[in-house]
Design brief:
The chain is α+β, with helices and mostly antiparallel strands and about 290 residues long. Helices cover about 40% and strands about 15% of the residues.
Length: about 290
């Protein structure tokens, strides 16, 4: 299966500084579901209850939905003939949302790579603590050779702001590299605060000082995992009109990916077009 992805092109200033104009959101993983090992458990309740038939539902759901539905139905051992069948999954998930039985949604997670998004964006994203995991590029371990920047949407069609952006990121990259060179020289001269035991520590001491001149516009690639309860909450908070358009753009793309991988769970979201060109979503079932 090809996982959903929104890619982002890399541009360069005349002096060669790389930058991106929109966020790349790439789904890189999802929770798989395989109930076959549970056959003895289901059969163990006796032939008359026919729990084992659960494995032979004629309608196959997407992995996340099949997993969440089974976990929810286990709560009431609602596994026999009178259960909600997969063909009624839309109704099942609407009931989950209406009753705010959101803990069931925590069983499935989606994993994303987000790139072409800046440090201001990641600072907002990582405020979401519950049900998530992050791995973000370390500005201490990487050096100037991988620096890229992100041009805000407001600048892209404005010649003056666009020119200022390009000039600024050229300057920022040059300043970073010059500071790193000077810091390296100071380190070799023996400056105490820059010393370290291993070669890796020495590089880290230089990078961690040099990065202080980088602007919010520096790209900050991040791997982001969220269980589907947390993902819904984040989409609702961030693909919302008051949110900064940079995080709204990512949140809307996260929603589109999630909707492709769990159409019943995200079917309540409605797209709202906004004048700034980055859509929002609304739902009657906020924060399940
Ligand atoms: C438009 C907008 C503007 C914002 N402006 C600012 C700002 O100016 N300054 C600023 O500092 N932040 C700002 N924020 C960030 C905001 O305050 C939250 O920190 C952020 O959105 C994370 O959401 P959350 O608190 O729901 O946390 P999440 O980690 O997403 O948690 C989900 C839910 O779990 C529960 N939960 C999580 N952790 C705890 C806990 N420790 N104790 C009890 N319950 C918990 C809560 O019910 C919470 O809503 C802004 C956010 C938005 C969307």
């Amino acid at each position: 299966m090809t996982l959903p992805a929104f890619q982002s092109e890399v541009f360069r200033t005349a002096r060669g500084t790389p930058y991106l104009k929109s966020a790349g959101v790439v789904m890189i993983g999802y929770t798989k579901f395989d109930l076959s090992g549970a056959r003895p458990f289901l059969a163990g309740f006796g032939d008359e209850l026919r729990f084992e038939d659960y494995l032979d539902d004629p309608v196959t759901l997407q992995d996340a939905e099949a997993l969440m539905k089974f976990c929810g139905q286990l709560c009431y051992l609602s596994l026999g003939q009178k259960r909600s069948w997969n063909k009624d999954a839309a109704t099942y998930f609407r009931n989950i949302k209406e009753s705010k039985h959101g803990s069931v949604l925590e069983h499935a997670s989606f994993n994303f790579l987000i790139y072409g998004a800046d440090r201001a964006f990641t600072h907002e994203l990582v405020r979401h603590r519950s049900g998530v995991a992050y791995s973000q590029v370390s500005q201490r371990y990487v050096d100037g050779s991988v620096l890229r920047f992100v041009e805000r949407r407001e600048y892209q069609s404005d010649p003056e702001l666009h020119a200022r952006f390009e000039t600024w990121i050229d300057l920022a990259r040059a300043e970073y590299n010059e500071r790193a060179t000077i810091l390296m020289a100071r380190q070799q001269e023996g400056l105490e605060v820059l010393q370290g035991e291993k070669a890796r520590d020495l590089r880290k001491k230089v990078n961690q000082a040099a990065r202080s001149c980088l602007p919010n516009e520096v790209e900050a690639p991040i791997c982001f995992t969220a269980n589907l309860r947390a993902l819904r909450h984040i989409v609702e908070m961030r693909a919302d009109k008051p949110a900064d358009i940079a995080i709204r753009d990512v949140a809307f793309k996260l929603y589109l990916c999630a909707e492709q991988m769990s159409s019943n769970l995200f079917s309540d979201y409605e797209r709202v077009n906004l004048p700034d060109g980055v859509p929002a979503v609304t739902t009657p079932y906020r924060k399940v």
